[in-house]
């Protein structure tokens, strides 16, 4: 929007504000456009504080990725961290692996139950909580809310994945947990600006605009599978059309994300699901999903990750 000058009846000329000028006036000098430019510069110069996976989890993942490693090597690494050990045992006893006649009580059978290669996704899932923590007390509540939503999306996705042979519930859970990962560095950087901490609408505007591109950058930095990188980058695109019109993990997370907002005042709760390709490709009855008649009990999965 450019400035416009009007002349009123007494000859006085009035010049309107540009959108940027009005924004700066209302926010005490803060500009979203300038914030975005600064953020892009931070990314180029590697100054942006990106979230990191806990060290013990990285060590365990390195063992899994080493073709010469064994389950015994993995047990040795994981056993050094009692918290990670306890979480993986709980994971092995979660709804993802129901059907056994016995409960897993130690780390070695937990790894056997999950599977040496599949335990990689389990480690991502149970370690991800630490990624959503910050020393910035004025933004931790937002981080907690983001984690709670991510857990709900992951739980919905894992439950839905069980109905589709083309999806792995473990991968679906991880996909849900990381779909909004790009919001984390934005929340941390927002602490530098009082207007973003105090004005919800401006912070939401930034999160909506930037989190998918940042999420893509973070997961590429972590060397995640391209299918999960696509989840972070594309889950907000309600008009996307995957190759061959076949459902993928982005569809799964898009649906889980919308279902997680059911009954709230979030804009995604009000979208017409009957017009979304993701619901159609997954064969989900949109009328039932809107009424909540096909709601899945995800409480056990949510309890696992808190």
Instruction: Report strand order across the widest sheet.
Output: 1-2
Beta strand count: 2
* CATH class (first level) name of the largest domain: Mainly Alpha
Strand and helix order = EEHHHHHHHHHHHHHHHHH
Give me the oligomer status. single chain
What would the average pLDDT be, to the nearest integer? 85
Task: Return the CATH topology of the largest domain.
Answer: Hypothetical protein af1432
Distance between the termini: 47 Å
Describe this structure in words.
59% of the residues lie in helices and 2% in strands. A hairpin with a 5-residue loop joins strand 1 and strand 2. The termini are far apart. The chain is an all-alpha fold. The chain has helices at 19-26, 32-44, 55-65, 71-78, 82-92, 107-114, 119-131, 137-161, 169-178, 183-190, 194-198, 200-221, 226-234, 249-260, 277-282, 286-291, 299-305, and strands spanning 5-7, 13-15. The radius of gyration is 23 Å and the shape is globular. It has three domains: 5-30, no CATH class; 39-50 and 132-306, Hypothetical protein af1432; 52-128, no CATH class. The protein is built from 17 helices and two strands. The protein has a two-stranded antiparallel ribbon. The longest helix is centred in the middle third of the chain and has 25 residues, at 137-161.
Provide a brief overview of the structure.
By secondary structure, the protein is mainly alpha-helical. Helix content is 59%, strand content 2%.
């Amino acid at each position: 929007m450019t400035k416009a000058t009007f002349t009123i009846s007494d000859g006085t000329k009035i010049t309107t504000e540009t959108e940027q000028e009005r924004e700066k006036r209302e926010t005490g000098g803060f500009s979203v456009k300038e914030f975005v430019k600064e953020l892009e510069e931070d990314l180029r110069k590697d100054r942006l504080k990106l979230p990191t996976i806990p060290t013990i989890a990285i060590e365990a993942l390195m063992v899994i990725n080493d073709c010469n490693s064994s389950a015994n090597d993995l047990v040795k690494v994981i056993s050094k961290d009692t918290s990670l050990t306890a979480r993986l045992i709980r994971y092995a006893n979660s709804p993802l692996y129901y059907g056994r006649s016995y409960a897993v009580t130690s780390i070695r059978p937990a790894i056997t139950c999950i599977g040496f290669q599949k335990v990689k996704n389990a480690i991502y899932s149970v370690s991800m909580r630490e990624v959503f923590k910050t020393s910035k007390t004025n933004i931790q509540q937002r981080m907690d809310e983001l984690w709670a939503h991510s857990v709900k999306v992951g739980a919905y996705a894992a439950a839905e994945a069980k109905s589709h042979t083309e999806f792995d519930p473990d991968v679906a859970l991880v996909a849900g947990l990381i779909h909004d990962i790009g919001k984390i560095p934005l929340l941390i950087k927002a602490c530098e600006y009082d207007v973003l901490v105090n004005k919800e609408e401006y912070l939401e505007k930034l999160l909506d605009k930037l989190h998918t591109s940042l999420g893509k950058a973070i997961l590429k930095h972590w060397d995640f599978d391209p299918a999960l990188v696509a989840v972070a980058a594309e889950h907000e695109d309600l008009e996307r059309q995957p190759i061959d019109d076949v459902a993928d993990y982005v569809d799964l997370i898009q649906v889980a994300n919308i279902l997680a907002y059911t009954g709230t005042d979030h804009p995604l709760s009000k979208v017409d699901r009957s017009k979304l390709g993701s619901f159609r490709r997954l064969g989900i009855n949109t009328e039932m999903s809107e009424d909540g008649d096909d709601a899945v009990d995800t409480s056990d999965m949510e309890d696992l990750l808190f």
